[in-house]
C-alpha cells in the first residue's frame, strides 16, 4: 500500500514539479507570479491533441510519437508564453508590481475562454501515445504511463539543470535572476533573457500538459486551474524563485496528497485540505519556503 | 578596436551639456567632460552632488534629459545598458552588486557574455565549438581573477568573499566585458589603508592595460595620488576641473567641499 501510494505520489509530483518550475523561473527573474501559466499548460496539451487530430501520422503510438508530441507541445507552449510576455507583461515592466499580476489573470481568462469558445467545451479524449500496461514492482502496481511520466519529467529537469548551470545563456539567466539591472550593466540583454525564461518555463509547462493528458486520458479547457494552483503552492513550499525548491516542493506536495488520499478515511475528499494545511504549517515555520533564502532588505 | 571618430588625439569620451532632471530637481545640470585614452580622472564632490547620477546616465541606467555623450565619436546617451557596455564602457557600484549566489569565477564569466556568441543550438547539441568557446571564456575569466589577485577564490560564492575582495571581484567582472573605459564608483569605500593601497596599485595596472579609468572617490589621499585630472561636481554642476593640486587650491572647491575635509 505504501509503495503503491509512493509510486502514485511520485507520478503526480513529477507533473507538479514541471509546472512549478515554470512559476519559479519567471518569479526568480521578474518577481512576478505568472497566473497564466496554468493556461499555458492547458494549451500545451491541446497542441498535442490538435496534432493528433490533423496529422495522426506523425504521432505513432510508442516512444517516437511521445517525443514528437512533447517537442511540439513544448514548442507551442513555449512560444505562447513568450508572446504573452511580449504583449501582456513587458509593457508593464516598469509599472507597479500589481499591474503585471492582474494582466496575467486577464491572460489566463482570455486563454481559457478562447479554448472554450473555439476548440471545445467538453472533455476531449487524449491520444494514447503509450499503450497502458501494468507492471508489478515489489508488490506495487506501476503502469507504463506512470513510468513514462516520471522518466520524461526527470529527463527534462536534468536538461534544465544542465542548461542553467553549464551554459553561457544559463549563467546569464542566473545573473538576471540575481540582479536584473546589474546584469544589464554587465552587457546582458535582459529583455532577451526574460523572453528566454518564458520560453523555457512555458516549454516545461507544455510538457507537463502532455504528461497530464497521458495520465488522465482526457483534457478540457479548464484543466490547468487545479494543477496550476497546486504547482504554484509547490513552488512556494520549496521556496519560490529557487529551482531545486520547485522540484522538491512538487514531489512533496504530490506524495502528501496521494498519501492523504490513501491512508485517511474518505481521504481523497480531504487531500487538498491536508496538502494546504501542511503548506501553511511549513510557511509558518519557514516563511521563505524549504529551500528559499531569506532576502535581506536592500539598503 | 573601433576607430570611427576615435583617431589619435580625439577624446575617447566627450560629454556635452549633460543634464538629468528628476521632476524639478536638476541632479545633473549641463556637465561637460572630455576623457582621453589612458587617463585616470576622478570625480569628487559632496554627497548629493550628482556623481553617481552622472555615472548612471553614462551607463544607461537613467536616460538623461539633455545633452550628449559621445564615446569613440558615437552617441550613446539613452542606449540601453547592455548596448553601452557592448561599446566599451563598464562599471562597478558604490554598493557592491555582485551576483551573490554565483561563484567568483562565474561572476567574471558572466562579464564575458557580451563578447561571445550566445546561440541556443550549440550548447544543446553539445557542439565542439561550444566547448572550445566555453574553455576560452573560463581561461579569460581566470586570467582576470589572477589580475585582481583572486585566482584561488574562483570557486567561492561571491557573497562569501571578504568585503575588499568583493570590490576587486567587481572590477574583474567589469574588465571581463573588455571595456575601453571603466567607471569605478567609490572603489575604496569601506577599505582599510592597506586595502586602499592595493586598490590604487590595481587601478594603475588597469590603466597600464590601456583602459581609461573614471572614478568617484572620497578618500582625498587616493584622489591626489592617482588622478591625472580631477573634476568637481556640486549640486549637479561642474565647478572645477584640473590637476589634483590646482583643484584643491580652487576657492570654489574649498568652499563647496574640501573646506570641511582638507587635512
How are the elements arranged and paired?
The complex is a heterodimer of chains A (299) and B (263).
Chain A: H1 2-30, H2 37-54, H3 63-89, H4 98-118, E1 124-125, E2 134-137, E3 140-143, H5 144-166, H6 168-178, H7 180-185, H8 190-216, E4 218-219, H9 225-238, H10 243-263, H11 267-285
Antiparallel strand pairs in A: 1-4, 2-3
Helix pairs in contact in A: 1-5, 1-6, 1-8, 1-9, 1-10, 2-3, 2-4, 2-8, 2-9, 3-8, 5-6, 5-8, 6-8, 9-10, 9-11, 10-11
Chain B: E1 13-22, E2 25-35, E3 40-44, H1 51-58, E4 66-71, E5 74-75, H2 81-86, E6 89-91, H3 104-111, H4 121-125, H5 128-147, H6 163-175, E7 181-185, H7 193-208, E8 212-216, H8 220-226, E9 229-234, E10 237-242, H9 244-249, H10 251-261
Parallel strand pairs in B: 3-8, 3-9, 6-7, 7-8
Antiparallel strand pairs in B: 1-2, 1-4, 4-5, 9-10
What is this structure, in a nutshell?
Chain A has 299 residues and is mainly alpha-helical. Chain A has helices spanning 2-30, 37-54, 63-89, 98-118, 144-166, 168-178, 180-185, 190-216, 225-238, 243-263, 267-285, and strands spanning 124-125, 134-137, 140-143, 218-219. The mean pLDDT of chain A is 92.
Characterise this structure.
The complex is a heterodimer of chains A (299) and B (263). In chain A, 72% of the residues lie in helices and 4% in strands. With 299 residues, chain A is mostly helical. In chain A, the strands form 2 sheets. Chain A has a two-stranded antiparallel ribbon. In chain A, helix 1 packs antiparallel against helix 10 (243-263), helix 2 crosses helix 3 and helix 5 packs antiparallel against helix 8 (190-216). The radius of gyration of chain A is 19 Å and the shape is globular. The mean pLDDT of chain A is 92. By secondary structure, chain B is an alpha/beta fold. Chain B has 10 helices and 10 strands. The chains are: A mainly alpha (299), B alpha/beta (263). The interface between A and B is medium-sized, with 24 and 35 residues.
